[in-house]
Amino acid sequence: MTPPPDGDATLVQAAGCVLWRRSPIDGALEVCLVHRPKYDDWSHPKGKLKRGEDALAGALREVEEETGCTAEPGTELGSVRYFANGRPKQVRYWAAEVTAGSFTPNDEVDRVLWLSPAAARSRLTQYRDRTLVDELLATFRHVL
């Protein structure tokens, strides 16, 4: 797919986070994935931006709506572009550490999983979302 120009009025703008935490059991890095029953898929929490909404604010709003968690944003990761319902869509992502909250199933998301990065990569439905886990891991390598 050739990405449309950023100024394209038909481009659907969305944002999300690769949500992470340290395991309460062993301190290992875990990544949160959400299950959307409408699509029967596993993905990172994300959603369309509201009119005039800042992308990072929208990403954090979507995390809270879909997972019940608040998060501290970190590094901006890559953007993912694809077609959805015949329209080009761009989703900007940030790494974000969960700070509080707990999940309650809802119509949009019925399950969340906290997985090792390798298990999260395998569970993600869309191949394009897997590189975001790699980008998250790269941000940790630079910090160590």
Quick gist of this model?
The chain has 144 residues and is of the alpha+beta class. It has helices spanning 55-67, 117-123, 130-143, and strands spanning 12-22, 29-36, 41-43, 46-48, 69-84, 87-101, 111-115.
Task: Write up this protein.
With 144 residues, the protein is of the alpha+beta class. The protein has one domain: Alpha-Beta Complex (Nucleoside Triphosphate Pyrophosphohydrolase), CATH 3.90.79. The protein is 24% helix and 42% strand. The chain is built from 3 helices and 7 strands. Strands 1, 2, 3, 4, 5, 6 and 7 form a 7-stranded mixed sheet that branches. β1 and β2 form a beta hairpin. α2 runs antiparallel to α3. The longest helix has 14 residues. It is globular, with a radius of gyration of 15 Å. The chain starts with 11 loop residues before the first strand and ends with a helix.
Q: Tell me the fraction of residues in β-strands, as a range.
A: 35-45%
Structural class: alpha+beta
| Name of the level-1 CATH class | Alpha Beta
Number-wise, the strands total 7
User: CATH homologous superfamily, by name?
Assistant: Nucleoside Triphosphate Pyrophosphohydrolase
Q: What is the global morphology?
A: globular
Any idea how many domains? 1
Q: Give the SSE string.
A: EEEEHEEEHH
